[in-house]
Each structure stands twice: as structure tokens, then as C-alpha cells.
């Protein structure tokens, strides 16, 4: 049996792939300015500067859109914690280091644009938003079980970037506002490029050390936590977003989990030893169970939405 490679050996082996994908990213990424996505003419002073403080009736967004925006923005706000995790588990040297800093700078742009939009349009309560940001950032990242080391980190961010892409995209649609939709489409396009970088690197790790990488992927998927885990109201907001198609179990399975596993050729690989095979089997069972849970979730959701409709309520409690 061959000896496992250490994280440092894996990073060194994958450095040429990191460089290639960094260059690919830089050639494809578009620079954009957050201020171009904010309707500044709608802005007004708050009470501290002689204007009026926020009140719910000022918001043009539905409750679902507000909750989704808050969840997505707080996730972006938690960037320092994500930067720390990535910087600690990837190398800070060479193309790895360049990637970590570039990625961080791009992510920061997302939070800037979304906050400016929400505050200027008075779409959400800015005081509650700030309180939630303080709590969420003070809690830091809620690590999925077994997080730590390069392989689990790169597996996690692959799925996490794709999940945020889906969530931003659907939040844009739910806002029913062309400016918000354009902004979130722009952000979702960034998340897609981030996902491709991580997916390609994790795929290369799978080719390099399949029996180490596949257990890491299985561990991350079977313990998957959305990046917003730990923020105030995360459960309630998550349920609401799932119920209204911002990010639900079917999207998780069909738009996030399955396409990536297919890209990595997980279920048809022939390079696995016993440890990799066992992880693949566990992953296969997990995916099958997820598919069954999707059906159960949708039945429950349909019943719940039907009950709400007969109550004639626009309330989502
Ligand atoms: Fe982002
Ligand atoms: Fe991203």
C-alpha cells in the first residue's frame, strides 16, 4: 500500500494545476464596480442625519426576498473567517497565495454591492442587519464535521460556491426588481468562476490521491452545512428559502451535488483502493437517501403551501 501524501506534498504536486487555473480565472473574470448596481437616486438620510429611520412599509421586497438577501449578505460578510480557513489550509506561496488573495478581494465586492443596494433602497432593516452581522462575524465559520486540511477545504468550497451561486441567482429572481436581479446575476457569475477553480483543483486532487480525496468529499457532503450556518435565524430563514425555491433540497441535489460528482466521474472511476471504494459506497447511499428526502420534502412543502393558500395568507410562518 502506498503511503498517504501530506497536505504539503499535495499542494506542491498540484501547484502547476493551481497556476493554470489561476490564469484561466484571471483571463475570464470580469472586473465590475459595486456602485454600478445601486440605485443611488432612491437614497435618503436616516434619522441620525435629519431624515427618517427604516420602517417595514418602505421595503419593496417580499419577506422571502428580504430573508434571502439578508442570508446571502451575512454569508458574504463572514469573509474574514473564510479567508482564514482557506489561507490556513491552502499554501500562501506561489499561485496558491495569489489565488487566495484574489478570491478574497472578489468576494468582498459581493458584500459591498449587496449592502449598498439594501441600505439605499431601504429593502431591509439596517439596524437588524448590522446586529446580525456583528453576531455572525463574531461566531465565525461553523465548520462541517471533519473540516480541516486541504482536501476537505477544497471539497467544501467547491460545493459552497455552487450553492451560493444558486442561492444568489434565485434571490435575484425573487426580488422582482431588475436592478437587484442584475446585481445578483453578476455576483452569481463570479461564484460560478470560483466554483470552477475549486472544482478543478479538487478534481486534480482526486486524480492524484483518490483514496484520500474521496473520503474527504464524502465527509463534506454527508455533513454539509450551508455557509450561513450559525447566523441569527438561520433555521427559520433556511426553511423559508427552501419553501419558496431559493435553495431547496432538489436544487442542492440536482444543481450542486450531482453535477460536481459527475464532473469528477466519482461513480465510474477505476482508480480507487479499498478506502476510496468504501467512501464511494457511503456517498452513493447518501445521494440515494437525498433523492428520497427530496420527494418527502416536496410533499410536505406542497401541503404546507396549500394550507397557507386556503388560509388566504401572504404570511410565511
Ligand atoms: Fe460571494
Ligand atoms: Fe465565491
Automatic annotation (TrEMBL):
PANTHER family (UniProt xref): ACYL- ACYL-CARRIER-PROTEIN DESATURASE-RELATED, STEAROYL-[ACYL-CARRIER-PROTEIN] 9-DESATURASE 7, CHLOROPLASTIC
Keyword annotations from UniProtKB, A to Z: Fatty acid biosynthesis, Fatty acid metabolism, Iron, Lipid biosynthesis, Lipid metabolism, Metal-binding, Oxidoreductase
Record keyword Lipid biosynthesis present: yes
Keyword presence, Methyltransferase: no
Protein name: Acyl-ACP desaturase
InterPro entries assigned: Fatty_acid_desaturase-2, Ferritin-like_SF, RNR-like
UniProt organism field: Nocardia abscessus
Origin organism lineage: Bacteria, Bacillati, Actinomycetota, Actinomycetes, Mycobacteriales
Subunit structure: Homodimer.
Pfam families registered for this protein in UniProt: FA_desaturase_2 (PF03405)
Family: Belongs to the fatty acid desaturase type 2 family.
Cofactors: Fe(2+)
Amino acid at each position: 500500500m502506498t503511503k498517504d501524501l501530506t497536505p504539503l506534498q499535495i499542494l506542491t504536486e498540484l501547484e502547476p494545476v493551481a497556476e493554470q487555473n489561476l490564469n484561466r480565472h484571471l483571463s475570464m473574470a470580469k472586473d465590475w464596480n459595486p456602485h454600478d448596481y445601486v440605485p443611488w437616486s432612491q437614497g435618503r438620510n436616516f434619522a441620525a442625519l435629519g431624515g427618517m429611520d427604516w420602517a417595514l412599509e418602505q421595503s419593496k421586497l417580499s419577506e422571502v426576498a428580504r430573508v434571502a438577501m439578508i442570508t446571502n449578505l451575512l454569508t458574504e460578510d463572514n469573509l474574514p473567517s473564510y479567508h482564514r480557513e482557506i489561507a490556513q489550509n491552502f499554501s500562501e506561496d506561489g499561485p496558491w497565495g495569489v489565488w487566495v488573495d484574489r478570491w478574497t478581494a472578489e468576494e468582498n465586492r459581493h458584500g459591498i454591492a449587496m449592502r449598498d443596494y439594501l441600505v439605499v433602497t431601504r429593502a431591509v432593516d439596517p439596524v437588524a442587519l448590522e446586529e446580525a452581522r456583528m453576531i455572525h462575524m463574531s461566531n465565525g465559520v461553523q465548520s462541517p464535521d471533519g473540516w480541516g486540511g486541504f482536501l476537505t477545504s477544497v471539497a467544501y468550497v467547491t460545493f459552497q460556491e455552487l450553492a451560493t451561486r444558486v442561492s444568489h441567482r434565485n434571490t435575484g429572481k425573487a426580488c422582482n426588481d431588475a436592478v437587484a436581479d442584475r446585481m445578483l446575476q453578476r455576483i452569481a457569475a463570479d461564484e460560478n468562476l470560483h466554483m470552477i477553480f475549486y472544482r478543478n483543483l479538487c478534481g486534480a486532487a482526486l486524480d492524484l490521491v483518490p483514496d484520500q480525496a474521496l473520503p474527504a468529499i464524502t465527509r463534506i457532503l454527508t455533513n454539509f452545512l450551508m455557509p450561513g450556518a450559525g447566523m441569527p435565524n438561520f433555521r427559520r430563514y433556511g426553511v423559508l428559502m427552501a419553501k419558496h425555491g431559493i435553495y431547496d433540497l432538489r436544487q442542492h441535489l440536482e444543481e450542486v451535488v450531482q453535477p460536481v460528482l459527475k464532473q469528477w466521474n466519482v461513480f465510474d472511476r477505476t482508480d480507487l483502493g479499498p478506502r476510496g471504494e468504501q467512501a464511494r459506497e457511503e456517498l452513493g447511499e447518501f445521494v440515494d437517501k437525498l433523492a428520497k428526502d427530496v420527494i418527502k420534502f416536496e410533499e410536505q412543502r406542497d401541503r404546507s403551501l396549500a394550507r397557507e393558500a386556503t388560509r388566504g395568507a401572504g404570511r410565511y410562518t
